[in-house]
Design a protein that fits this description.
Number of strands: 0
Structural class: mainly alpha
Largest sheet: none
Order of helices and strands: HHHH
Shape: elongated
Strand content: under 5%
Helix content: over 70%
Number of helices: 4
Radius of gyration: 29 Å
Distance between the termini: 62 Å
């Protein structure tokens, strides 16, 4: 508890904050943070640009892709249910269960 108060008092000291901001590790951490944020922003813009390009492609291209994905997904789910060992849960009646 005392340590927390001491740390809070030190971090609210403008002189200490100024000296820390001039230290090499803190400046490097700030540079790395800025670099990571900029890279994330650029990658997000690039992904959005590619998505707009796909959506603006030939008429119905995106709809065909979505339909193909849906059909493939449904086929895989059905195949997985059919090929799994045992019966599906709830398909067998328990011998003492009420109707």
């Amino acid at each position: 508890m005392v340590f927390r108060r001491l740390l809070a008092a030190l971090l609210h000291s403008p002189q200490l904050v100024e000296r820390l901001s001039e230290s090499r590790p803190i400046r490097r951490a700030a540079q790395l943070t800025a670099f990571a944020l900029l890279q994330a922003q650029l990658r997000g813009k690039d992904a959005a640009r590619r998505l707009r390009g796909i959506a603006a492609g030939p008429a119905g291209s995106l709809c065909r892709r979505a339909a193909r994905f849906r059909d493939t997904f449904n086929q895989e789910v059905r195949r997985g249910l059919r090929d799994r060992p045992g019966s599906p849960p709830g398909s067998q009646r328990r011998s003492g269960a009420d109707p």
